[in-house]
Amino acid sequence: MRTFFFIFSLLCFHFYVTFSQSCCNISVVSVGSTENNAIKTHNLQVGLSYSYINSSAAYQFDKKVQDPLQRTAFGRNLIFDLEYGILDKFSLYFLIPYSSYHRSQRISEQLPIIEYKNSGFGDLLFLLKYDILSPRFSLPISISAGFGIKFPTGSFDASINGTMLPFDVQTGTGSFDFPFWALIKFTPYEKISLTQSLMFKLNGTNPQGNILGNELNSQTTLVWNLTEIFAPVVTIRVQKRWKDRIENQILPNSGRLLVEVIPNVIVNYQSFSVRLIFGIPAYTRVEGLQLSTILRLGLEMKYFIDFQQLLF
User: In the chain, what are the domains?
Assistant: First the structure.
């Protein structure tokens, strides 16, 4: 009888954490595009990025703890994006990810490891950017803002053998979401720039009645252009995520605050640039017991085309 209650309680706990907030899926647009103003008219920037996220650390509030379910979680995202200057001070940004997620857990030593795997195209995002203030010699500050919509093109109800996969390994949310973006860029010297960007994502309700918690991302980035080719970069990213609502119930094990330090380097060659990204958490606080990020690796490639110069 004790064994029965022990396994029953673990199964209840397993259900509780299975539907906790997503640990690995992409939440904001690629780093380089949220740190730049709108590009000029008839200019096109094409990007391809790869990111790897290891979210195998269990936290209870702000303490790293031993996970009773021995969970591991990994996410890989291949992101294609482009931005085009449609009008003076206006540009349109587009993003589509291809994601692969893997999570495993073991309820008890007497039971086998449970694995959840899924891959596929994610949700399509459009963002309209507008330059509010352009930099001048007397005031080297630029301000931009934008808003957009995320379409539910990714799968939110993928299943294996008739069993629906957990939310955190679905490639889409199933909801129309609305991102709002703002950027301030300060260039005190020719080779140094400091940017502060904010992205707030207002999440909608999917067909199952589930709502992922709204999300606020802040990125502070310092770029030092040592040469025309090489630039070291430091980014501090703060992510605040509110609680999820699944089947009309607020999940206690959802919502978090994550602060990451992301050193990276940019290598430029003519119209082509490559960015190498490495991120580690500086502070983590979650609600209840959750998995959280312990490592982020990324590679970002951008190619710039000036159609105005080519055609005119």
Answer: 2-311 (2.40.160.40)
